[in-house]
Amino acid sequence: MTEKRPTRDKAEGLTLDRVPAWTLALVPLALIAGALVALLTIGGATLGERRGPPVEDLGVEKTILRPGEIELAVRNVGPEAVDVEQVFVNDTYVDFTESPEAAGPLESQTLTLDYPWQEGSPLLVTMLTSSGATVEHQIEVAVATPEADAGFYGLMALLGTYVGVVPVALGMLFLPFLRGVPERWIRVVMAATVGLLGFLAVDGYLEGAEVAAQSAGAFGGIELLFVGAALAYFTLVALGHSLRGRRDRSEAAGAGGFQLALLVAIGIGLHNLGEGLAIGSAYAIGELALGAFLVVGFALHNTTEGLAIVAPLARNTRPSLARVALLGLIAGGPTILGAVIGASVYNAEVAVFLIGIGIGAIAQVIVQLVPAMRDRAGRALYPASVGGILAGIAILYVTGLVVSA
After folding, report:
1. What are the tens digits of pLDDT across the range 210-237?
2. Does the residue 177 lie in any domain?
3. Degrees (nearest 5) of the Cα angle 298, 304, 308?
4. Are 245 and 273 found together in one domain?
């Protein structure tokens, strides 16, 4: 005897399982919006009068020094409006103009101070608000801010060329020589590259943390370093998988070596964009030593990228010089773009984010290089590779001493 299944009546047929899933989200969203509107309109009245002094906080985001003038871009990072009444520089009252006259929460304003500062001297700027609160900003060494003119951006383009285009081209030129080098020494070179990049990532983190401590904190500080690193790392991982899949499909379909090399060059160009951002932002925030350090480190690394680009070309006929130059430009050109963009950013928080992008790109490159340093037994760490890693660290350590000298 078969068991009869219960049938639904008409009222039971109108259940939630027939309602589209996306419409179910409208009810909680409407309740959340209503609750927020209620808090904004009548919530404050139910809390009574707030006692205590006003909560005022200003953060200096940008400092520009011109002859006889100091310009500060400040942001209100507190919950109440802030109006600057007086400004002192090294305990001396100075005339100033402000635009706008007051800053609401998260709003910014520009203070222009009339002060005959002397180059090389420290400056302590003290801002007195209408409530009597004081906010201090220390300028360690007074130096005229360089104008972001065509010459400055030309320097960024030149740095991008040094870091991206030239090293990749040099890596391509060394390919015939490396064909005759034993494979074990190639693995040692890859291990040294991993070492110098790891050292560079640590140095970038330390510098990013220092810049984050100087930011206003309105939109985050050190958190932006990790956000930028994670965004760059996972984005490049996803793009790398996509390009690798296209490369495998092209190879299975019998595509030419130039097409495979082009896909590799596109992937490397994405990495170099993050490298250019890190270098440009370092120069933009005034950390010239970090910028030069990054230039040397990335240039040493990018010479190995040229080998990865021309490797697919070795299996086919020699391509034309124009095609090889195109591959080098695709791989190294984004470094120029990144340096120009990074140099245009003078906000400390955005600079931290861009440095984080550079760190994420470094980490992703290290992950890609580790398989290339494995020995025939599949080990990533063995005496030769450990020696290569330590050699890479030593190279950048000595380079840092030379740059800072």
Report:
1. 777 766 666 667 888 899 889 888 887 7
2. yes
3. 130
4. yes
